[in-house]
Amino acid sequence: MSDRDVEAAPDLKTETAARLALVIGRLNRKMLRATAGLSHGTLSALSSIVKCGPLRLNELAHREGIAAATITRLVADLEGRGLVTRQVDANDRRAFSIEATPEGVSYIMRARSDRADVIAALLEDTTEADLAALGDALPVLERMLEL
């Protein structure tokens, strides 16, 4: 292999990043169909509220890594769907706490199950060796995401 071949070949990290981004994007599009109309961002916000709520808007925005204006729109959408409620914060009457309704909790549980079903269908014809390889990769992905 010449010096020119080495320079032309993408490094492993860059190639892996590009392939992983493509695969995740395609998986996201397939799983979006299983969320009954909520975008990934809105579903993520609802999940955070269910898991960690009640949360103030700024806490939720920080947790989700998005701007306050964006989280305000997401919460308004969730509230309009009856999935969350907004209560005046007992510690600061100028602020609001967001809490999931029973319907919101149920929605998250269904969405998780439906999304798992999408992945299970994709794995239907997967060989044992490929399943093991995917299982071996999961701890790396979980650590990357601090799950």
Which percent band covers the strand fraction?
5-15%
Gap between N and C termini: 41 Å
- Work out the helicity level: 55-70%
**Low-pLDDT windows of residues:** none
CA-based shape: elongated
Separate helix tally: 7
Question: How many DSSP E strands?
Answer: 3
- Strand arrangement, major sheet: 1-3-2
Mean pLDDT: 88
Gyration radius, in Å: 20 Å
Q: Outline of this structure?
A:
By secondary structure, the chain is mainly α. It is built from seven helices and three strands.
List descriptors.
single chain; 147 residues; elongated; mainly alpha; 3 strands; three-stranded antiparallel sheet; 7 helices
Outline the structure in words.
The protein is mainly alpha-helical. The protein is built from seven helices and three strands, in the order αααβααββαα. A three-stranded antiparallel sheet has the order 1-3-2. A hairpin with a 7-residue loop joins β2 (84-88) and β3. The chain is elongated. It starts with a helix and ends with a helix. The mean pLDDT is 88.
Helix and strand topology:
Layout: H1 3-8, H2 12-32, H3 40-52, E1 55-56, H4 57-64, H5 68-80, E2 84-88, E3 96-100, H6 102-122, H7 128-144
Antiparallel strand pairs: 1-3, 2-3
Helix pairs in contact: 2-6, 3-4, 3-5, 4-5
